[in-house]
Design a protein that fits this description.
The complex is a heterodimer of chains A (273) and B (235). Chain A is an alpha/beta fold. Chain A has helices at 18-21, 64-70, 101-107, 122-133, 139-152, 156-159, 172-184, 202-215, 228-234, 252-255, 262-268; strands spanning 24-35, 38-49, 52-57, 81-89, 92-93, 108-111, 190-194, 220-224, 237-242, 245-251. In chain A, 34% of the residues lie in helices and 25% in strands. The longest helix of chain A is centred in the middle third of the chain and has 14 residues, at 139-152. Chain B has helices at residues 7-40, 43-74, 78-107, 117-142, 146-176, 181-213, 227-230. The N and C termini of chain B lie far apart (41 Å). The chains are: A alpha/beta (273), B mainly alpha (235). Chain A binds chain B through residues 228-229, 232, 256-259, 264-266, 268-273, and chain B through 1-6, 9, 74-82, 213-215. The structure holds adenosine-5'-triphosphate (ATP) and magnesium ion.
Chain lengths: 273, 235
């Protein structure tokens, strides 16, 4: 797959520089998503670079979560939802009939807006994924995976003495980091984060951002955020959605200093009516 | 540009631009008076210019303070961000223009006899040109008019050319009679100040371009101040 992006009419063109440096990990072509009659994503095409952070921004209801969820087929769980077009991870169609969805979700992990730990121990929350995917060989290996994942999520020091207490007993910020530890425990290649910091204080937010920075060395990360500053801080690619349309996608540095489309300009400067 | 959802944001930006307009107006006045003082050897007017410079410095301080507060409070993005950055830069150019006007006015005290006619017309022309450049570029800025800004940017050559011819003229006077050296040196500094004011006007023009386009001016402007080849101490 070359860095060339097949752009469609509505999206401001020019191939982002980051796609010259990083091969695309996820590619979408002419994707339409419907909830029954509701056309939530309209003919969207985009390339998402590997080992980089891409941010989806846009007003509430523009379809960010809808498109994000289509990247690991979370939308399958919504009966009225229909996805057409091409979405590929590593150039493989993730909507192919013979594709194993459970396996896909291990490769493409997700962190939600509200931290949602299982009503189990901290340890079990992290061990859950490796267990169902059978990636751990024995107790020692599992202990190792749990510790490593919690360390990477910079939560280890805070929970190492209470691994058997319930994950739901942690603070909101700790729960969110637990969910990130759970997501990375299965060694995903892509991590989708839907407003992961919206319930967190500035310190916890900074911790997650630091973690995202570190994770991008190895993973393809996509983050949905309502904070323009956060998008500007953590991402290298920014995609602006409006009314189900991908209006503009470009290098983050350009989007926040000299966006091409007036709608992008209006939105990021707080002018949207 | 449409309004922000938060009205106070627009009010903050308007307040900033109003201060800058006041600062620009003050600099224009200062420059006009400095030129008048020097060419008429009016010491009273010169003193007034020297005193009034504080006002410009004070306005710059206020603009910086407001701009910092606005960045902290609103975290401007895209064009808003450029707007604030350009305001700070333009204020700093105007502050320098104020200093140069003051320095020009100071030269009045050192000039005791009437200027030779050729020099006084040269000085008057250069002063008028610098003043018109400043006036035009401030208007262009107030209207976000990058095309008008670029006109100013291109006409800076005229000031440079005029400065070069006055420089030669002054050299001739000094060589003719060493008693002219003191007068000519002060005039030389005075005209160099005007030439530099022209440069600050082009800086402002470049900032208007950046504000409007988000990129810097790419066209190279031919630098016509050749006096540095004659005088190694000039920058
Ligand atoms: N399960 C659903 N059933 C029907 N319509 C839905 C469903 N989920 C989302 N929608 C609609 O699809 C559109 C896009 O929703 P989506 O949740 O993707 O927006 P979003 O950009 O993530 O917004 P927010 O920033 O508020 O999270 C909205 O109009 C929404 O009402
Ligand atoms: Mg959403």
């Amino acid at each position: 797959m070359s860095a060339q992006t097949a752009t469609k009419v509505e999206t401001a063109t020019a191939v982002p520089r980051i796609l010259g440096e990083r091969a695309p990990k996820v590619t979408a072509r002419n994707v339409d998503i419907y909830y029954g009659e509701k056309h939530a994503i309209k003919s969207l095409s985009v390339d998402i670079p590997d080992r980089a952070v891409s941010a989806f921004i846009g007003p509430s209801g523009c379809g960010k979560s809808t498109f994000l969820r289509s990247i690991n087929r979370m939308n399958d769980t919504i009966p009225s939802c229909r996805v057409t077009g091409d979405i590929k991870v590593d150039n493989k169609d993730i909507y192919a009939r013979d594709l194993d969805v459970v396996h896909l979700r291990a490769r493409v992990g997700m962190v939600f807006q509200k931290p949602n730990p299982f009503p189990k121990s901290i340890y079990e929350n992290v061990a859950y994924g490796p267990r169902i995917h059978g990636t751990a060989s024995g107790k020692a290996d599992m202990d190792d995976i749990v510790e490593r994942s919690l360390r990477r999520a910079s939560l280890w020091d805070e929970v190492k003495d209470r691994l058997n207490s319930p994950g739901t007993g942690l603070s909101g910020g700790q729960q969110q980091r637990l969910c990130i530890a759970r997501a990375i425990a299965v060694n995903p290649e892509v991590i989708l984060m839907d407003e992961p910091c919206s319930a967190l204080d500035p310190i916890a937010t900074a911790r997650i951002e630091e973690l995202i920075d570190e994770l991008k060395q190895n993973y393809c990360i996509v983050i949905v955020t309502h904070s323009m500053q956060q998008a500007a801080r953590v991402s290298q690619l920014t995609a602006f959605f409006h009314l189900g349309i991908l209006v503009e996608v470009g290098d983050t540095d350009d989007i926040f200093t000299k966006p091409k489309d007036k709608r992008t300009q209006d939105y990021i400067t707080g002018r949207f009516g | 540009m449409s309004d922000h959802i938060v009205k106070a944001y627009d009010e903050d930006i308007t307040a900033l631009k109003t201060l800058l307009a006041e600062m620009g107006g003050a600099a224009e006045e200062q420059l006009a008076s400095a030129i008048k003082a020097l060419s008429r050897r009016d010491a009273t007017l010169a003193d007034q210019v020297i005193r009034n410079d504080d006002r410009i410095d004070e306005l710059e301080r206020q603009i910086e303070e407001k701009a910092l507060l606005l960045i902290a409070k609103r975290q401007p993005m895209a064009r808003d961000l450029r707007e604030i950055m350009v305001t700070i830069r333009v204020a700093s150019d105007i502050e320098r223009i104020g200093d140069l006007a003051k320095n020009t006015a100071k030269r009045t005290h050192a000039i005791s006899e009437a200027l030779p006619r050729k020099l006084s017309t040269g000085l008057a022309r250069m002063g008028a040109l610098a003043l018109s450049q400043l006036n035009k570029v401030l208007n262009a800025y107030a209207r976000n008019d990058d095309i008008m800004g670029m006109e100013v940017w291109r006409s800076d050559e005229e000031i440079d050319a005029l400065y070069n011819s006055i420089f030669r003229e002054l050299l001739t006077y000094m060589m003719e009679d060493p008693r002219n050296i003191s007068l000519c040196t002060h005039l030389l500094f005075g005209t160099k100040n005007l030439e530099r004011i022209g440069d600050h006007a082009t800086n402002i023009a470049e900032n208007i371009y950046f504000l409007v386009h988000g990129t810097t001016v790419s066209e190279g402007r031919p630098k016509k101040d050749v006096t540095s080849m004659m005088n190694p101490n000039e920058d």
